[in-house]
Amino acid sequence: MSTSVVLITGAGGFLGSLLAQALENDSRTPNLHLILADIVEPKAPPNVKAITIKADLTDKTQINSLFETGYGVPDTVYCLHGIMSRGSEDNFDLGLKVNVDSVRFVLDAARFKGAAAGRLIKFIFTSSLAVYGGPLPDVIKPDTIATPEGAYGMGKLAVELFVNEYTRRGFIDGRIMRLPTIVVRPGAPSAATSSFMSGIIREPLKGLESICPIGNSLDSSELDLAAWVASPSTTMKNFIISKHIPAEKFFPHTRVVCLPGFTTTIRQELEALEKVAGKEALKLVKFKDDATNRRVVSSWPARFDNSYAIGLGFAVDEGGMVPVVEQFKKDVEAGLA
Ligand SMILES: NC(=O)c1ccc[n+]([C@@H]2O[C@H](COP(=O)([O-])OP(=O)(O)OC[C@H]3O[C@@H](n4cnc5c(N)ncnc54)[C@H](O)[C@@H]3O)[C@@H](O)[C@H]2O)c1
């Protein structure tokens, strides 16, 4: 039986840990062997062959070690590690070191270790809608030019250029997914500017208060601020799909794909919370308008043309925020979130 060796960097994070689980359930990834790496000790899902490695990926030696495990050279790398938006904005040098320099080291390891093993490694990189900034059309299309206005988006765009060039040169088989904001994220609030978009659902569903930094009350017009989002479950489907798309299906000039998402407003999120969990849950959301946060989130595009991504086979959430909140409530009740 053929073996699939998959390396996930950032495997201790939100999406990395969900991905390990999703790969285990993917019938098109036979005899899975996972290499899970993160600066914090990653956890392997039960019933899967996995090596967990605590590694600082700003160190080339530690990166090389990920390609030299007993499982051999991976056939696929999901490159997910990183410093999130607010974190890389507040600490520019750390953001560059982790989000750009270390990803270049991983790309080079994939290039050279892959070549030595006679293997073109699939390199799947998670980019973000933070690559966009400046004046934008109402709807973002694949040919909309990305002009980031923050360190996080700049770093993502810089890496996209490397992944595309390494792919063009035949060093790797790159796939770049520009992700919507993923809601609802479990666990503690993150260093992402968008963190509150999960917090205003997550905390009330757990009986806790949450601060909404947009608007000062439920009547504030600021709550009509729109955002481009996707659920964790659809995102995981798409992470798996990205691995199976035949290379020739992508545009010849770029491997960038804006993953499908949907538009929600902060008000629609709160309405979904009330519908799923009632007025008492909604009362747990407190308002403290933060002009900086509001400015950054307002600068992100909130409407995309999904047709290229859907044509490639990617999945899209149906039904808006309500099913997303319902799913998260089930996860909380099952002790999974
Ligand atoms: N969650 C979202 O809404 C979203 C949206 C757009 C893009 N993304 C991208 O998806 C990827 C995963 O996002 P996430 O939400 O799981 O983030 P996360 O913060 O939960 O996970 C990132 C992981 O990277 C690890 N990491 C940081 N520095 C490291 C280092 N020097 N060496 C090794 N590991 C290090 C962290 O420990 C963490 O576990 C990131 O690249 C992120 O930029 C996420």
Automatic annotation (TrEMBL):
Classification via Pfam families: Epimerase
**Taxonomic path:** Eukaryota, Fungi, Dikarya, Basidiomycota, Agaricomycotina
The answer to whether UniProt assigns keyword RNA-binding to this entry is no
| Membrane-traversing stretches | none
PANTHER family reported for this sequence: ADP-L-GLYCERO-D-MANNO-HEPTOSE-6-EPIMERASE, NUCLEOSIDE-DIPHOSPHATE-SUGAR EPIMERASE
Q: Could you name the domain of life of the organism this protein comes from? A: Eukaryota
Query: What name does the UniProt record give this protein?
Result: NAD-dependent epimerase/dehydratase domain-containing protein
Q: Which residues form a coiled coil?
A: none
Q: Where is the NAD-dependent epimerase/dehydratase domain?
A: 6-210
Carries keyword Signal? yes
Q: Which UniProt keywords apply?
A: Carbohydrate metabolism, NADP, Signal
Q: Which residues form the signal peptide?
A: 1-22
